[in-house]
Structure formats: structure tokens, C-alpha cells
Amino acid sequence: MKVVLIGFRGTGKTTVGRILANRLGLPFYDTDALIEQRAGMPIPEIFRRAGEAHFRALEREVIASLRTAEGVIATGGGAVCDPANVADLRWHGRVFLLTAAPEICHERIAGSDRPGLTDLSPAEEIRTLLARRKDAYLGAADTCIDTGRRTPAEVADIICREIRGETGISPDDARERAALLERFGLSTLGEMLDRDPGLSVCGIGGNPCAHSKSPLLYNRLFERFGMNYHYTRFEWPDVGTIVRLAHLLPLKGLSVTIPFKSDVMRYLDEVSEHAAAIGAVNTVVRCGGRLYGHNTDWLGVRAPLVHRRGGRAVVLGAGGAAAAAVYALKTLDMDVTVLARRAAAAQRLAGRFGCRWGGLDEFKGSDADVVVHATPVGMEPDTRSLLAACDLRAGMTIFDLVYTPPETALIRAAREAGCETIPGTEMFVHQAVEQFRLITGIAVAPEVVREMLA
């Protein structure tokens, strides 16, 4: 058994870890103590002599050495900011994030001889680092526990009950969950959870979402990184019901697809700056009973188009994917025009980002360096194309965000016209890389995702 405690300084990792190790009959590893042992000097001295970069390198070595260890591991506060550390800690382990309010952390670590990591006052540094590390903490954790008003023994009790599978839902919630799983056609998932209470769940919510490649990709990634997780589909016409089921499951992450990317936002506790600006969420991270919304679609659009920075772009569509595309293109300093079947919708989207707008019939290919198609047209079973080869010209870049089928009618028309083509699988790959990091804390290379989708 491998139990990992992560979190900021002062959240009780070392004290709770020793109690846990004693109760579970496991060895206890404190990564900071192991770093000092390896360096032959205390951590403040490491910082003074060699700086933080050297300390992080030693930390990386120590955590790598514990990859296959059985025991209770307490990490340093910044350890999970390195995704490579997270991959080693998560390998056949269960990760608990210990949290506490900034003022409690400040009170607990007051008087420490550890050097500051910024030029800020101790209290302000804590608030700043907690904000900076928030996504890393939430992603790396399987379970979040607030230690602010609990004794170390009480926190250890909670973790022991979690490990033994004794912190299940109430009988009423269990009945509701079983009924919903049956309605969703997911009774097998309920059986999996009955057999393995430690199983964590992720899934994609949409209507439809049967076409999604996310279950294939994620379940392969979970196996690759030694994670006790399962990814499934939540296809249902009402996003509120999907969110309700998510709360009844040991759910860690939810991918959100059409038509719920905007509607899901009203059910979330927090929404990232990028998702708020776009007005759409495609990634939900759950920890400590709270739902955190993000948008990774815009990164999936941006990455393949960096070479077109400063060009003229046309976005076809005015929904959530189109908003992410406009946001991405604006970060590349592109001159953007939004065209949609409903000109009023195009006007609303363009008005948010200061773009030109119009109806689809106003498309003039010669005016664009880049065309991003962001409507569902072309997705099976509607495999049409909004544009023909005669609408395009050689030298343009055509990016079709639809990825099922892998080669759409628009991509074929663009090739016929001599355009550079970017299939929707590229958008899927790059957004999935960021989504997986947000949900698990692990960085995976785009090449690995492409290989797993092949």
C-alpha cells in the first residue's frame, strides 16, 4: 500500500503521516528529511548554498526513488508543481491533499527557519503560493481533506476510513445513485464501485457523446500511469442530472462537450479566468466536494496555429467551441471575423471580443489566412461541409475542429484546393494534454496521446 500526503506547509502532512504509518503498519517517508539526508545538510542550508533549483533537483531524485515504495509518503509543499513528481507519487498510490486556510498555515509555520520563496511578507507569500499552486494541488489529489479545524488524529481517522472504503454515501444517496446509473445505462459502473470502493471515476458529459474518444484515451493513460481510475460516458439530455450523478460518484474529473459547455457553468463552485472569458467550460475538476471549471479547448486551437500569428482568421460558428477559437486566435494577435448561420449569434460572440461578424453567406476565402470551423456540421452522421474547394485558395490554413470522422468533407475539400489542413484530432490532442494535467496533475506528451488514439 502506498499513501501519499500533499499540500502546503503547515497543513499537517508530517504529523498526520507518522500517525497513519503507525496505524497502518507501514514505513513513513518524509521527502524533506530524505533530501536533507541525501544532501548532508538542512534545507535552509541547501537554499543558501545552491538555491531552490538544486533543492528541486534533489526533491525530484528522492521522489523518483519512492515510485514503487510501499508506505506513507509526506511531500514538500511545492513537490507536486513538477508533473514528473506527480507521476511517480501517483504510481499505484493514493494521494490525499491536506488543506488549511492561509491564516492557519501562517500560524502553524511561524518561526520556521525555512527561507522564503518570494520577496513578499510571510502572510502574503502563503496566499500567493497557494493561488499559484492551486491547480497542481487539485489535480494531483484523489481526495481533499481540510485540516484547519481537525486534529492530526482526526485527519488520520478520515484517511483510514477512506482507505478501508468506509466513507461511502448515505443509503438514500446510494439508492439515488443506483437508479441514475441504471437510467444512464451504467449499472456496470455501480458494480465496479461495489467491488472496489477505492476506484475513482472520470467521464465525459454531453448529448450526444457516444462518438467521443476520451474513454479510450483516458483509460489507456490511467493504465500507463498506474492509476486506479475508470473513465466512462454520461450521455443525457440534461446537464443538471449529469452533475447530480457526478456528486453521487467518487468523481474526480468531467469532460464537457456539446451542448453543455455554457450551461454547466451555473453548477460550478469556481470558474477559471480563461473559461469565464470564453463563456464555456469543457473541463471540470472535483475535489473536496467542490467543482472547478476550466476551458482547455482554446489551447487545443492555439497550439497548432502558433505559426500563423498575426494573420487574418475566420471562425465559422458562434457556440462554445467557436468562442474558444476566437479567444485562442486573439491571443495570437490575429484579425478575427466570426461568421455563423444566425448572424445575430455571430454578432453577440464578435462583440465580446471586438471582432467583425456576419452570416455564413458572407464568407470570402481570399480574405482569410486561417479558417477555423467550429460547428457540429461534418460530425457523424451529418458529414456535410459548409465550404467547398471552390470557396478556398491555396496557402490558406483550414482547421476543422470536428474529429469524427478523422477526415471530414471540409478537410478533403481543403486538400483539393491546396490548403494546409489541420484535422480536429489535433485540437483534441492538445486540449486533452492540458485536461489530463488539470484532472490528474500529470503531464503527458502530445505524441503519447496521438499514439494512444491511433
Question: Could you list some keywords that capture this structure?
Answer:
454 residues; alpha/beta; Rossmann fold; 3 domains; six-stranded mixed β-sheet; six-stranded parallel β-sheet; 18 helices; globular
Word description of this protein:
This protein is α/β, with parallel strands linked by helices and 454 residues long. The chain folds into 3 domains: 2-164, P-loop containing nucleotide triphosphate hydrolases (Rossmann fold, 3-Layer(aba) Sandwich); 171-295 and 435-453, Leucine Dehydrogenase, chain A, domain 1 (Rossmann fold, 3-Layer(aba) Sandwich); 305-422, Rossmann fold. It has 18 helices and 17 strands. It has a 6-stranded mixed β-sheet, with helices on both faces. Helix 6 (122-140) crosses helix 17. The protein is globular and about 70 Å long. The relative contact order is 0.09.
